[in-house]
Amino acid sequence: MSANTPITVAKGDGIGPEIMEATLHILREAGALLDTEEIEIGERVYRRGNSAGMEKSSLDTLIRNRVFLKAPITTPQGGGFRSLNVTTRKLLGLYANVRPCVAYDPYVRTKHPGMDVVIVRENEEDLYAGIEYQHTPDQAQCLKIITRGGCQRIVRYAFEYARRNGRRKVSCFTKDNIMKLTDGLFRRVFEEIGPEYPDLEREHLIVDIGAAKLADTPEVFDVIVMPNLYGDILSDVAAQLAGSVGLAGSANIGTEYAMFEAIHGSAPRRAGQNLANPSGLLLGSVMMLVHIGQSEVAERVHNAWLRTMEDGIHTYDIFKEGISQEKAGTREFTQAIAARLGLLPQRLKPVHYYAAPTRTVPPHAETASSGRRELVGVDIFVHHAPADPNIVGRLMEPVSSDGLKLVMISSRGTKVYPDPLPHTIVCDSWRCRFQSSTDNPVITLKQVVAALGRAVEAGAEIHKTEFLYNYDGRAGYSLGQGQ
Ligand code: NAD
Question: How far is the CA of 265 from the centre of ligand 1 (A)?
Answer without folding.
Answer: 3
